Amino acid sequence: MTIAQKEIFLKDYTVPPHLLDEVHLRFELDPQQTRVHSTLICRPNSDANQPLRLNGEHLTLEKVVLEGSALKEGEYTFSDGILEICEVPDKVFTIEITTLINPSANTALEGLYLSSGNYCTQCEAEGFRRITCFPDRPDVMSVFTTTIVADKTTCPVLLSNGNLIESGTLEDGRHFATWNDPFKKPSYLFALVAGNLVSIDDEFTTVSGRTIELRIFVEEKNKEKCAHAMASLKKSMQWDEQVFGREYDLDTFMIVAVDDFNMGAMENKGLNVFNSKYVLATPETATDNDFDGIEGVIGHEYFHNWTGNRITCRDWFQLSLKEGLTVFRDQEFSSDMGSRAVKRIQDVNIIRSLQFREDGGPMAHPVRPASFVEINNFYTLTVYNKGAEVIRMMHTLLGAQGFRKGMDLYFERHDGQAVTCDDFVQAMEDANSFDLGQFKNWYSQAGTPKLEVTTSFDDAKKQFTVHVEQSCPPTPEATEKKPFFMPLCIGLLDKQGKVLTPQAASGELADEAGTVVLPLSKEKQDLVFTGLEQEPVLSFLRNFSAPVLVDFQRSPKELAFLMAHDPDPFNRWDAAQELSLACILEQIDEYSPEKKVSVAPILIEGIKALLEDTVSDPALLAMALILPSENWISQQLEVVDPVIVFSVRNQFREQVARELAPLFEKRYKSLQTDNPYQYETRQVGERALKNCCLGYLLANKTDGTINTGLEQYNTSDNMTDTMAALQSVVNADREQGDTLLADFYNKWHQDPLVMDKWLILQATCILPGTLERVRNLMEHEVFSLKNPNKVRSLIGAFCSANHAQFHAADGKGYAFLGDIILTLDPLNPQIAARLATPLTQWRRYDVARQELIKQQLKRLQDTPTLSGDVGEIVNRSLQQ
Ligand code: B3K
Ligand code: ZN
Fold this sequence. Notes:
The chain is an alpha+beta fold. Among the domains are: 20-287, Sandwich (Immunoglobulin-like), CATH 2.60.40.1730; 312-444, Neutral Protease, domain 2 (Orthogonal Bundle); 459-553, Immunoglobulin-like, CATH 2.60.40. The protein is 40% helix and 21% strand. It contains 27 helices and 32 strands. The protein has an 8-stranded mixed β-sheet with strand order 6-5-9-3-2-12-15-14, with no helix packed on it. The chain is globular, with a radius of gyration of 28 Å. The chain starts with 7 loop residues before the first strand and ends with a helix. The mean pLDDT is 97. The structure holds (3S)-3,7-diaminoheptanoic acid and zinc ion (ZN).
């Protein structure tokens, strides 16, 4: 049975029939019975007198008052999530609505809910309609004034968007606070927080000399863990001024950390609500990765103030307008704060391993989707990360200055508006007199383009030609694809490794690193370079200048040459990846359980050179030592057997570890230090390299290697080294691993974020028996199905990162996930739908696994009470 679902189309967009001049809200907070009074000053937005339609879900409607008189039954209807009042004045009018909601029963974590006893809200995308009846769409923007009334002892802190304009005490131990946000905003940016919180305060002086009060609100026990978040916030504010000329606009910027949150964080105007994972950190409790993540997410949400809040989306199809752009901005911020090349490699890994997979599956959709059933399912890698790549390509095509001109024009034109991706591109075009017409195919076509590349050299003409042929596979929305327009960054080297400064026959010149940016627009195109004495070595798609797959046949020797000589750090790393990928694929091809995997000598030599390299950035060396991910390897295969992929990659790693054991040990030792922990680029890179070496040392299972891990665990004074040691031991030896896990639990069981790490380590353990372990951990007191971080750490990690065991041939992993989705769906459909992602990929596997996965999908589809969230994923997955 297929559940009928309501699909919404971009082509059906119409302007809102009513706009709002003002919104006044009054919350009387109570865990079970919160009453919300809202007063809306409405204005008709068309000549034809249209009924007033407001969205309202999961609430009790108590009262509707139109222009001062209460409406009686029959004067309005309220069904299927719509409150409709047919007879409304054709001039400005007032409507008052009273609703009753139950925050304590809200396990979906959308709308108003409780986290650790504190009230908080999540309204994007459509959570506001769970609070009151409202035109809950992003193109209805208004000024909000919010009064919160609550018990003074349990809720000493009362927060909403904007500025505090009044507060005071009421009878019965209650108090109130009134907030006014002078900037017009859509309902999805509304926020309310109330509870027992403390704040860490600081300030920032803006470029124009205004002092902004910065406040981070947390539970009392966490107040020592906010220094890094605060420092990151100040850096973000300064960076946006320097790089984009954007100054903060309110007098206060507040962040609240909560433990129960469906995603990373939320950019509500002046009052960001964060998953505590992206706020709380000390060297003892958080890893370098966590510190990176906090800096990036604090930046991301802060940057939304201009790209998202001041200028917002007209409709949810335009989500990438704010998300792709803001991801691009946070990527640039992190690149400027740390190592640019490392950041680029991390971002490209996400695109290749995860976004390409999405693009190749049943959930594939363009950066600007054309339709959806549940918008929450479209907060995807495509909208966010591919969206950021699309912005990056414009940056590459127009240059940093041209891009900035486009951004300035965009802000100037659209401040205070709800706009479309077309408006953004138009600003870029107009500011630069650059035609981006064909470029817009990136917004409307799904799928990963593939470039087939060959080269030729004409001795007589001293001419080198790169032949490029682009294609894009069919995706659910279209079979025929128009060619994409993209920048190709290209470099040439001579056979001795010297960097050449090529000149394109079309006129483009190389920059100081020898990179030429050439636009590709045709299905088949020749890129010609002139004035070359000998045939050069091509360095193609430097810095991953377009989100495409490249099919360019190169010998291991050529890849090793580029690994050693390419001046583009990204391409040096990429050559290393491609070489290991080729070797691993060859072994997968020849796989038999009896045969030992062997590593090609040229690769061993390459890795040896990395370990002996004392000049390059240690962070980059660490990245180069990591073998291609199982996801990325799997994407190269016609039919995937995840058990074989894991086994070959793992044996490969063990073999490298064995052959180069003394070098791994030497490098590991050379990176030992007595310097106290600091989160600082050089140290982070050195720790990454050291811990990468540790991983290899323990992968070489000979006597005594485990002791190095045990020793690091016992002597470490920071979570980065502790986790690296713990992970290596847990994956090497069950008994010793269990001892350390017990010790770790004793030390940290009171810290939920550290316990998330404890769960992830166990869920991703490569030793046999992990599914059983995961099942047992679900019974453990630290686990809760109601907490998204716990679900992601235990179940999400097992199903999406432990490929070999999740995809065990007996299908038990699939059945386990099916059970969990069915249990979680009624509680939190958004998280349940996310968990279903691995099932969408069923077509990639062998027939036996396909059948087993389909059984689970059908079982979900046959569940009459299934949510629209999960239903959409399941239906799309099973569509032919
Ligand atoms: N805009 C939010 C995401 C909201 C997700 C709603 N399901 C966080 C962000 O991207 O900054
Ligand atoms: Zn965002």
